[in-house]
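Sorry, any thoughts here?
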Amino acid sequence: MKNLSLLLSCFLYFSAFAQGNLPNQDPPNIVLIFMDDLGYGDLEAYGGYPQQTPHLNALAASGMRFTNFYAAQAVCSASRAALLTGCYPNRLGISGALMPWSTTALNPEEETLATLAKKKGYQTGMIGKWHLGAKVPYLPTSYGFDSYFGLPYSNDMWPVGFDGKPITDTADRKYKYPQLFLIEDNDPVIPIRTLEDQAQLTHLYTQRAVKFIEQHKEDPFFLYLAHSMPHVPIAVSDPYKNKTGAGLFADLMTEIDDSIGEVMAALTKNGLSQNTLVIFTSDNGPWLTFGNHAGSSGGLREGKGSAWEGGVRVPCIVSLPGVIPAGTIANQLATTMDILPTLAALIDAPLPVQKIDGVNILPLLQQVTDTSPRDHFVYYYDANSLKAIRQGKWKLVFPHTSQTYLNTQRGNDGFPGVYKSMEVPLALYDLSTDPDELVDLAPSHPAIVASLTALADHYRLTLGDDLTKQTGTEKRPAAKID
């Protein structure tokens, strides 16, 4: 009887964890750090070299490091829409990287991570790159954030050339960009006119993050820190110039790593480190055409701007002491879309009313079971092209046209290289043994090809597919800007 009571107690305890009800613990604070164009091979914990990232090493040692974690698409706005809403971005009518003059924005009717946290009494703040609408009322304060400080879109969307000089040639495509400003809530406050101005971004964001933590240490808070770099143009503040001797990118990674260290130190200083969930990940893989100013996909194929693994598989580290076992590695499939339902479970918030694509991976984080909550992942790109699907170790790539960095001339020192495209045939890859997607196994596994094709057909029906000319029955409209 005694053993039965003990067994029942353990069952109830772990059931509470799986549902997000943390026994005898206040609601956790949440710090979500989202990098821009950080590659799978850019962190020391993922084999990155020559840069050293000791603070991120410590974060990984305190929690869980994912090896099969995906951004929804390998491009800025689409990836960010997916993170905040738990949806494939094409479900929401968002694709590509929105321009400053774009007439499309994330629909404010979509529920976001911030709006869910607000329902549970959280203080919410965003710092950094937004890129889901460039003007009021499509800035973060319309999407559940109490405060905002950052850039409205990518830091290369400015009337400045790759050499750092203002554009005067009206025929140059960059001439049409408006003046770039840092925005405070809804108002432009600080112009970003030079590379030296760019060099202050990581430092300014870090200062604001630390200030937010100190201001809200008495209340549960959700902080979304979306760094603008290592998206080009890259630059570092004075203490980090030539600090590593390994080039500007390594210097930048040192400053980014120290930024994480300052955020973690602020949590410790204010007695919050043991009850704060910290998530660190990236919006997509490296922009390889920029050569020595780009990072590494860590041996995965290609990078940003494609449906290959180097474009969408990204580093992810998650830490919450006492809940997520320290020093663990998750090889199961997971995505940025899974963060929303996982946080909802963790803080006992209701899920969005409208359909989402994310799944709750809290049991995986806690290692309550050895199962994988996410069964599969579909690789959309361009406007709405279903280019591949993954289930388990298998990835089926459908015929399509892809950007490629193979056999291209890469740029250097801030200048881009030459872009090329290639025609991609149907192919099946075993990612457990072939992460660089070189060996086509489709001819020897026709049953797997048929099964994955049938699964993809469901998404073609519901979300559409430009490659097969299907519109989709479950898509929701983006906001239209006047």
